[in-house]
Amino acid sequence: MSVVRVDARDASAVTEVLLAAAESMRTAEGRRGATQWIPSRGTLLATGDLHDNLVHLQAVLQLACLDASPDHHVILHELIHGESLTGGMDTSYRMLVRVAELVLAYPTQVHPLLANHELAQACKLRISKGAGEQVQLFLDGLDWVFGDEAQQVSDAIDRFILAMPLAVRSASGLFCAHSTPAPFEVEVTDVGALDRDLDPARYADHEGIAWQFTWGRGQTPESSRRVAERIGARLMVCGHAYVEQGAEAVSPELLLLNSDHARGVAVEIPLEGPLPSATELAREAVFLATVGFEG
Q1: CA angle 283, 288, 293 (to 5 degrees)
Q2: What is the DSSP letter of 276?
Q3: Quick one: pLDDT at residue 131?
Q4: For the chain, how far is it from start to end, CA to CA, in angstroms?
Q5: 203 within 8 A of 211, measured Cβ to Cβ
Q6: What distances in angstroms separate CA 139 from CA 98, 145, 226, one per listed residue?
Q7: What was the pLDDT predicted at 140?
Q8: Is the Cβ–Cβ distance between 131 and 137 less than 8 Å?
Q9: Which stretches of the chain score pLDDT less than 50?
Q10: Least buried of 16, 191, 193, 244, by fewest C-beta within 10 Å?
């Protein structure tokens, strides 16, 4: 399928594609509250944090083979706030535009997940990475590119971000999110909210389910097992943590992935039949730097 590309410097075109993709995600078949349910057939290519790594995004799309079957799925998260700046400004909004284009081209196959950096950007919370205070650097980038139309684009970005599901799930027991609740929050997390539309309080700083499933850290084998029990999952695949080797099984139920750094990976998960364990999948991860590009 041909992906319609827009001029990423045209405020009207960027706004239009972001808002159209937001509506597509909110109204997608299988969307139930904050969760996108997908059929238990075909495959899903799981990724970790991408942080504006366009080369690795291209490798992910090469592996996903979206044109080969409508039952090929891919999840994408932590798209913005990379360490490479342009003139001292963050222009990673381009990654959001690229993913919005993909959502419109493959509305049942491409699944962006809400992540903590996107949540911080939409809610204008201070967040730092290697390049500095990322939210302001991102806004500076929008001002530089779009001038008087920067606020229009920023508003469209916020709507696109807040339309992203917190989780992608299958009836076979797969659960993908940016993170899972920290051990001390496992029992108090309102997991039923995953199936409800999120009101503003659910996005609150340090509170609410959006925070718990994007910022949670320090998962242990015991806490991972308990989260899986509470949400009815057999396998959970997340990002958020730094994983030096690209893939790490915290427990048989929880696999953590990184996709942005030099050893970043993706992993293909069969959606039919019994799901593999996180330990098995970690051994099958593909280093994105080794993927050759066609054409």
Answers
A1: 130
A2: P
A3: 62
A4: 16
A5: yes
A6: 18, 10, 39
A7: 96
A8: yes
A9: 295
A10: 244
Task: Output DSSP code: residue 49.
Answer: B
Token couple for 87 = 């003139």
Residue among 98, 152, 144, 95 at smallest CA distance from 118: 95
Look up tokens 């996903």; give the residue. 64
DSSP single-letter state for residue 9: T
Q: What is the pTM of this model?
A: 0.95
Nearest to 252 by CA among 15, 19, 274, 294: 274
Residue ranges of E strands in 220-264: 235-238, 247-251, 254-257
> Closest by alpha carbon to 276, among 247, 235, 245?
235
**How many CB atoms lie under 10 A from the CB of residue 242?**
12
In degrees, rounded to 5, the angle at the alpha carbon of residue 47 between the alpha carbons of residues 45 and 52 is: 130
Q: What is the reported pLDDT for 128? A: 73
Handedness of CA 2, 78, 88, 12 (dihedral sign): positive
Give the dihedral sign, CA 27/76/171/44: positive
pLDDT at res. 50: 97
Tokens of 133: 């205070």
SS3 37: strand
Domains of the chain: residue spans and CATH: 11-289 (3.60.21.10)
Can you give the pLDDT at residue 207? 72
pLDDT at 201: 67
DSSP-assigned beta bridge partners for residue 31: 36
Phi-psi category of residue 207: left, alpha or beta, with phi > 0 → left and psi -120 to 50 → alpha: beta
